């Protein structure tokens, strides 16, 4: 990364009013990321408040079901608030406090980033406003209630598709207006520099822990490391630790929605082209005129029409591959994991679990697949209950489902 760019991607494409704030943020982050006192405070909160390190878990019955490689989960669902999002929110809020910012804003899709930000703001006594599309508020009603209980103001966004893209746009408008006293906690590895770099650094704890745990337990590294990709924060955190290991394949799994051919999906890397959105140059879903296309995913957290610029670079260079998984396959994987492992995964993660089964069968016995289990699926029960799901996979689980 150089000057906020990852290869030809990244950079800053923002109004002039934000340039000073971004310069201030970049200077603060690049100083504090090496500051022993800041790092000690962050690690203390990671241990006592987040619950790190999260465990590495062998999904034994799921592995047996697929009859191939062994599948392991990095259990980010066991973080406080139920997802990896707290890693980033915690670091950014501590940074904001040190910068003298007392008002925090955020955007959220599945609600997990909003809950994480509201949680940390409650912990530090800061004002918190979370922007959320009304469609996502409908799908993630429980998380809306959680944010409000934590003291955050949830502002409904009705423009566009009323999902994550539109919530992000409204948060940026707020930041432009209140930039002097407000820090914008972007929830994914997207946006203008230095956000993609900063979010990656704060989420890298996932991959660093997983790599150390894998080597300590098995004396080797996995064949494949997988994670879901909306904007791509959990995946870039996971991939970064393994990027210099040439024997480890990196796979990002995107929301294939109703299929790439249908056009109703949110696979920004697999189906996108280069363009500018939310202050950064990356791979996006857009039409020939450069207008952002409508997206669809059963998983609110993946319903974003692009990927972070570092993912675009990894796709460009071939270091990582990005594959779409459709709604129906993700829902079947959700049910299979729940009934076979006693773990209710987020619908975002369920996209990865489908492809993990495919790769485990292809690798065969002796292979090793590592999945970032990015969050828990309690928030998705309403969505799953509304959806007809094939029952044959769960019925076929060894020992009964």
From TrEMBL:
Pathway(s) this gene product operates in, as recorded in its UniProt entry: Amino-acid biosynthesis; L-tryptophan biosynthesis; L-tryptophan from chorismate: step 5/5
Enzyme Commission no: 4.2.1.20
Modified residues (N6-(pyridoxal phosphate)lysine): 85
Xref: InterPro entries: Trp_synth_b_CS, Trp_synth_beta, Trp_synth_beta/beta-like, TrpB-like_PALP, TrpB-like_PALP_sf
CDD domains xref list: Trp-synth_B
Broad class of enzyme this protein falls into: lyase
A molecular-function term among this protein's GO annotations: tryptophan synthase activity
Keywords: Amino-acid biosynthesis, Aromatic amino acid biosynthesis, Lyase, Pyridoxal phosphate, Tryptophan biosynthesis
Catalytic activity line of the entry: (1S,2R)-1-C-(indol-3-yl)glycerol 3-phosphate + L-serine = D-glyceraldehyde 3-phosphate + L-tryptophan + H2O
Keyword Lyase: yes
A GO cellular component annotation in the UniProt record: cytoplasm
Cofactor names: pyridoxal 5'-phosphate
Residues covered by the Tryptophan synthase beta chain-like PALP domain: 51-375
Family as reported in the entry's similarity comment: Belongs to the TrpB family.
NCBIfam families: trpB
Cited function: The beta subunit is responsible for the synthesis of L-tryptophan from indole and L-serine.
Assembly, per entry: Tetramer of two alpha and two beta chains.
Name assigned to this protein: Tryptophan synthase beta chain
The species this protein was found in: Actinopolyspora erythraea
Gene: trpB
């Amino acid at each position: 990364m150089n000057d906020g760019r990852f290869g030809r991607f990244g950079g800053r494409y923002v109004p002039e009013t934000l340039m000073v704030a971004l310069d201030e943020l970049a200077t603060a982050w690049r100083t504090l990321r090496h500051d022993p006192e800041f790092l000690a405070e962050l690690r203390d909160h990671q241990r006592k408040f987040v619950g790190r390190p999260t465990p590495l878990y062998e999904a034994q019955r799921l592995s047996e079901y697929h009859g191939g490689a062994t599948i392991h989960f990095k259990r980010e669902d066991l973080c406080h608030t139920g997802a990896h999002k707290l890693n980033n929110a915690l670091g950014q809020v501590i940074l904001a406090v040190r910068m003298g910012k007392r008002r925090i804003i955020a955007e959220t899709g599945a609600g997990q980033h909003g809950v994480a930000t509201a949680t940390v703001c409650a912990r530090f006594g800061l004002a918190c406003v979370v922007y959320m599309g009304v469609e996502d508020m409908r799908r993630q009603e429980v998380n809306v209630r959680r944010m409000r209980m934590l003291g955050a103001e949830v502002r409904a966004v009705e423009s566009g598709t009323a999902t994550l893209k539109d919530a992000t746009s409204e948060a940026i408008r707020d930041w432009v207006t209140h930039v002097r006293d407000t820090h914008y906690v972007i929830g994914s590895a997207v946006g203008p520099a230095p956000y993609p770099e900063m979010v990656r650094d704060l989420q890298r704890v996932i991959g660093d822990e997983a790599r150390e745990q894998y080597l300590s337990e098995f004396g080797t590294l996995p064949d494949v490391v997988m994670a879901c990709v909306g904007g791509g924060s959990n995946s870039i955190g996971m991939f970064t630790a393994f990027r210099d290991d040439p024997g480890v394949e990196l796979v990002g799994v995107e929301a294939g929605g109703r299929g790439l051919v249908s056009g109703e999906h949110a696979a920004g890397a697999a189906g996108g082209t280069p363009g500018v959105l939310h202050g950064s140059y990356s791979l996006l879903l857009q039409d020939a005129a450069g207008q952002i296309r409508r997206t669809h995913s059963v998983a609110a957290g993946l319903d974003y029409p692009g990927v972070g610029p570092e993912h675009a670079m990894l796709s460009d260079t071939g270091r990582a591959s990005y594959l779409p998984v459709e709604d129906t396959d993700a829902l079947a994987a959700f049910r299979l994991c729940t009934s076979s492992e006693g773990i209710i995964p987020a619908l975002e993660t369920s996209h990865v679990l489908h492809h993990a089964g495919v790769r485990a069968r292809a690798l065969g016995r002796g292979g090793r697949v590592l999945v970032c289990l990015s969050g828990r699926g309690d928030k998705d029960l309403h969505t799953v209950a509304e959806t007809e799901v094939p029952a044959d996979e769960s019925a076929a689980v060894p020992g009964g489902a």
